[in-house]
Amino acid sequence: MKRRPIIEPFRIKVTEPIRMTTPAERRRILEAAHYNLFSVRADDVIIDLLTDSGTGAMSAEQWAAMMRGDESYAGAKSFFRFQDAVQGLTGMPFVFPTHQGRAAERILCSVVPLQGKVVLSNGLFDTTRANVEAGGARGIDLSLADALTAHRPFGGDMDLEAFDRAMEAHRDRIAFVVMTATNNTVGGQAVSLGNLTAVSERCRKAGVMLVLDACRFAENAYRIQQDEPAYQKRPLPEIARAMFDLADAFTMSAKKDAIVNMGGILAVRDEALAENLRVDLIRTEGFPSYGGLAGRDLEALAQGLHEVLDESYLEYRFAASGYLARSLIEAGFPVVTPAAAHAVYVDAGAALPHLGPGDLPGQSLACAMYLAGGVRTCEIGELMFGEHGPARQLVRFALPRRVYTQSHVDYVGAVAFDVAEVKAKLPALRITRGRGVRLRHFVAEMAPVSPFPFE
Ligand SMILES: *Cc1c(COP(=O)(O)O)cnc(C)c1O
User: Fold this and answer.
1) What CATH code is assigned to 23-52+311-448?
2) For the chain, what are the domain ranges?
3) Is the pTM of this model over 0.70?
4) In sequence order, what are the residues at sequence separation of 6 or more whose Cβ sits closer than 8 angstroms to the Cβ of residue 111?
5) What H or E segment, with its residue span, contains residue 347?
6) Range 334-347 burial, b when 16+ CB lie within 10 A, else e
7) Which of 99, 253, 257, 266 to mutate to test the pocket of ligand 1 (most atoms within 8 A of CB)?
8) Do domains 23-52+311-448 and 60-307 have the same CATH topology?
9) Which ligand 1 atom minimizes the distance to the CA of 264?
10) Are residues 187 and 394 in contact, defined by beta-carbon separation less than 8 angstroms?
11) Which pLDDT score, from 0 to 100, does residue 390 have?
12) What local confidence, expressed as pLDDT, does residue 147 receive?
């Protein structure tokens, strides 16, 4: 029997046109944007792989659920549907909606005392780190030293030896521990349940709160099901539940694995902590039964949490990223493998050895992908993290959920092939404005030291 491709497990009922641009137009656009792809208008992008955050396509069921949105100020039906969905999935008793993931982080970080403390993590996402540091704590990443090069299934794990040493060294100064699943700062690699269990046991023994950054819990659960022998063939909701059971709290951007365009979740087990979070939530986000969201958003979020654990969806999602990874490798780019579901990460430092970290090789490659074919990607390296970050210079090709088809991915592969042909000639970029600003990658202005090799 002929091998059958893994297909997109959905049909398309609503379409959005893509505006085609010419190379000359893109040169003007990128220059006007000061070589910062966050400053390029979406309408000037052909394939937008900037992020998988809030860029997914909602299902017919989600749109239908939105029509049921109850917009009552307090105690809306939509809140109880949201709460049931989150509690049913995670077992967390105290659940709050927030307008996005970073709001959940900010509330947690303003309620838990952080001044002079440390937060240990397998890898803090940039907004999480910013919130932890704004509270006066130091964020310490304890990811595996070879996470990006070892090509093992669970590169997102915490380095347990380093974790034990840090727990010992900082003892009473640990505000909490964060496990990010999947681990966005190390190539979106998954975290094993074995590692999560080991971290959780140590935290419980030491009386330290373990917070799960659960943005991509479903994609992480699928990797566990595929690659962790003890959990093979177990139903995905069961694996997801096992992940949440190990944590005392979680923050989540619903813009990722709840497949909505806006929303976040904060949930905890401890009642006294919940009381304090509720006060801060009311002060800054809204009443606890809507938390910065409309009733219809809560409906779509609840439905999305259910859809995301569909096995055929996750199988297709990993097939798509694996296919993109293979086409980038065929084009001649070193890629972090196994590919995450939400993105493929190209090692721009290795691909452009003529550029040092200060030359922003990742940004140079990202600009080249835009100039060559209108493909928007995102630098994750020196520009994003400066000297504090992981030493690697990566470019992330993020895949919005249920948006692009295989021919779109083929197009990206073809553009990458053209860029690979001139990669030795890609220029260094210099930051001309916004160098010292926090989260500078969103706002910095740059200029190439010599012209890009595209006419
Ligand atoms: C996106 C993301 C966040 C922040 O969520 P927002 O909804 O963008 O505020 C936090 N952690 C991780 C791992 C993320 O990917």
Assistant:
1) 3.90.1150.10
2) 23-52+311-448, 60-307
3) yes
4) 273, 276, 277, 280
5) strand 343-347
6) bbbbbbbbbbbbbb
7) 253
8) no
9) 7
10) yes
11) 62
12) 83
